Amino acid sequence: MILRQTRAVFHIATCCQGHIHTSTQLAARDPRKEWEKFSEGIRKKGSVKNWVRDRLQQQREENSRTFEKSKREYEKKREERYRNSAGHGGVEGDLPEKFLSLLPTPAQFNETFDKALSKFPDGADIVKKFPRKYWPFLHLSRVDKPIGSWLLFLPSAWGICMAPGFISLPLLGLFGVGAVLMRGAGCTINDMYDIDLDKQVIRTRDRPLASGQVSKEEALQWLAIQLGLSSLILFSLNTQTIVLGFFSLVLVGTYPLMKRVTDFPQLYLGLTFNLGALMGYSAAAGNMGLAPLCLYSAGICWTMVYDTIYAHQDKVDDMKVGVRSTALRFGDKTIQICTNFVSAMGLSLLLAGLAGGLGPTYFISSFLTTCMIMKGLSLVDLNNPRSCWEFFIMNRNIGIVILLSIIVGKII
User: Fold this and answer.
1) Long-range pairs of 313-317 with CB within 8 A, sequence gap ≥ 24
2) What is the pLDDT of residues 335-377, one digit of tens each?
């Protein structure tokens, strides 16, 4: 019995030693020599348990050395980019380093907002308030991860608050609920399109459709419910906003296809997510003007930045399965190109404030938030998913600051 267990461990150890061998490599190995080497290791360690523990420790040490090496290489490239940034529009060439050092890091910025928002239940807590049988559907709509709903709602809130007159709280509430519903519908459509791709990507293989928790028929029924409720909200608005809403439905329905046909799905997402700036202004003011168009432009540039950085989390898997993105298209030039988009975003916010007749507090705040994104770009590690996620989360807070600056700018 012990011999069979030992041979089983040997089989696992020889096939899975921290990396994947090709069939040619496996065929070239001598099983007898491998067994002798394995048996000798067991005798030296005294037991299979000790041998396995030591092998795991060796693997951890090897992974740690690999990480440190990658970190040093990244820091070396980063320093080189900083030295050359003045000539190609890099972050440090655009803003004095001393000024950027006065701003908080993305981690510090996020921590401040996390404390302020901790009084409210997070997405996971909201999901747990429902019966367990509904959890897969709520996960399908990403209710447990409200960051997407925030990023969809905020441009709408900008538009509503930028409109002349008093700010309509009921309208903000309607667009807030609509953002949750439409983001959920978009995620459902996306997962129905990508069910086969999601099974091949580590970050997405546990999604309800990919893991089999929800069938395609059930997902389609859930999509109809979300779209139906969204339509009730849309039809309560004026005609111009309804037309814009139907246009947004076309964008939402076709967005998941973009990653298959273009290297710029992030641009298409920007056109989709930020249409709310036009809809919010139209619903509040009953007309259109230069201010919402500038907000729409700022939002598109903003989305290009945060979603490109977000896409760097999956770039290895995306290359394997053939998914296209600006992260892969921009490559090593991502920081430089995103810096240019941030500059365009800042200019669009400036024009929106001038067209909307806002006060000086808005312009000061807009400038500081633009600088904050610049600093985030200067610190993000594109090869570290956690760093990319931290930058992505920061943009929810950036959007909230812009919203507050619009509200205060109407007064001061």
Assistant:
1) 313/203, 313/385, 313/388, 313/389, 314/201, 314/203, 317/200, 317/201, 317/202, 317/203
2) 999 999 999 999 999 999 999 899 999 999 999 999 999 989 9
DSSP letter assigned to residue 54: H
Question: Whole-angstrom Cα distance, residue 391 to residue 373?
Answer: 9
The region, left, alpha or beta by phi > 0 then psi within -120 to 50, assigned to residue 357 is left
pTM over 0.70: yes
Other beta carbons less than 10 A from residue 33's beta carbon: 9
Nearest of 73, 112, 159 to residue 393 by alpha carbon = 112
Taking the C-alpha atoms of residue 371 and residue 343, their distance in angstroms, rounded to an integer, is 9
Residue 305 buriedness (CB in 10 A; 0-12 / 13-18 / 19+) = buried
pLDDT (tens digit, 9 = 90+) per residue, 31-43?
A: 666 666 666 766 7
The secondary structure of residue 132, as a DSSP letter, is G
How is the chain split among helix, strand and coil, in percent rounded to 5? 80, 0, 20
- List the helix and strand counts (H, then E) for the chain: 22, 0
Query: Which pLDDT score is estimated for 304?
Result: 95
